[in-house]
Design brief:
140 residues; mainly alpha; 4 helices; elongated
């Protein structure tokens, strides 16, 4: 049985997460465990969905119906990461400013969405992982 479709998104998630941790650690000049999560370069979400779309494109061809479904899903996730989740982060920042002096308040996470560069980097990571899987793990 061919498990490439099952573990390629996991590999893309891991690669993007490792890159994000490394980049954040270099920027912070310390191990950046507190910066793991949503937001940042590269986008994990973009890497995951683009890895699947790219792998389907490489293995089945761009004319395969599954490729169309994967591209559609990728667009939805990427648009969500760039618009809706980014707006949620902006709202969280405004709420945090409004409630800064409130006692016993929980700070909302402000870093939620992605910039276009973060998304582009995630797409490149996803395509790179899919290409590596395609060339290193031929069909069984």
């Amino acid at each position: 049985m061919d498990f490439c479709y099952a573990w390629t998104p996991f590999l893309a998630w891991f690669a993007a997460g490792a890159l994000k941790f490394t980049i954040n650690s270099i920027k912070a000049k310390r191990m950046a465990f507190g910066l793991i999560g949503y937001g940042g370069l590269p986008s994990n979400h973009a890497a995951i969905v683009s890895s699947m779309a790219a792998l389907i494109g490489f293995r089945e061809g761009a004319d395969h119906p599954a490729f169309g479904v994967a591209i559609t899903l990728a667009f939805i996730v990427i648009l969500d990461a760039n618009s809706l989740r980014r707006q949620v982060g902006m709202h969280a920042a405004a709420i945090n400013r409004l409630t800064a002096s409130a006692p016993l308040r929980e700070t909302l996470r402000e870093r939620m969405g992605h910039t276009r560069n973060e998304i582009a980097a995630g797409i490149l990571v996803g395509i790179g992982v899919a290409a590596a899987v395609f060339f290193m793990a031929p069909r069984l």
